[in-house]
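Worked problem 6 (solution included).
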Amino acid sequence: MGMVEKISNAQLTLLNYLDAHSGDFSQRVWLDPRFITRDLRISMIQFAEDSSSLAAQGLAGLRDFRADSNDVPSLKCSAIWLTKEGKEYLRQAQFQVG
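Solution. The predicted structure is:
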């Protein structure tokens, strides 16, 4: 795993959510952002910011994510999933806490 910067508590919450709802890691499970924002009680803007940061670091994957001309995260994301790197990040973070 490459160098990953420290993520925020909100991003860690999102990453843990992806881990809990992704099922078996051998198959990519794409999750609908609408359900995530409802379950975590966050806005689509917060989701877009957190998910784009996680994706930029390789911890999550996004489908149909595009930034506009001002590099503001788009609210158009049809799916998100936990990557192998994201799973490894959570595993390492668990050892650092415990």
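Discussion: Residues 84-97 form the longest helix (14 residues).
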